[in-house]
Design brief:
Layout: E1 13-14, E2 17-21, E3 32-37, E4 43-48, E5 78-80, E6 85-87, H1 98-105
Antiparallel strand pairs: 1-2, 2-3, 3-4, 5-6
């Protein structure tokens, strides 16, 4: 199965950047948030919600859970201009159902 990314929310405008997340956490995508220049569409930064080997936080995951992905960012976040803070929730883990968990264990 190949992972499919999607986006289904309003992307807030923060300091001339559009912030966007992705859906697809229930299909094993690796969630992220990304900021793009509103004028050109050029990506300014990307923050992964599930770390890869060598990235901060990778060693805090138990077993091989980190290899399955998840952590979609399909819920719309909010920005506090007074504190210059972006708040964004993450979605479901993967695998997220008994059927998928059973299949994942056989891998």
């Amino acid at each position: 199965m190949s992972a499919a990314l999607g986006c289904n929310h309003f992307a807030p405008d923060v300091k001339d950047m559009v912030i966007a997340g992705v859906s697809g956490g229930d299909w094993g995508i690796r969630g992220f948030l990304a900021a793009y220049k509103a004028a050109s569409g050029e990506r300014v930064w990307r923050h992964w919600t599930v770390p890869s080997k060598g990235e901060p936080g990778y060693d805090t995951w138990k077993g091989n859970a980190v290899t399955y992905g998840g952590g979609a960012t399909w819920l719309t976040g909010s920005y506090d201009p007074d504190t210059d803070t972006l708040y964004w929730a993450t979605g479901n883990p993967y695998p997220d159902s008994g059927f998928r968990r059973s299949r994942a264990r056989r891998r």
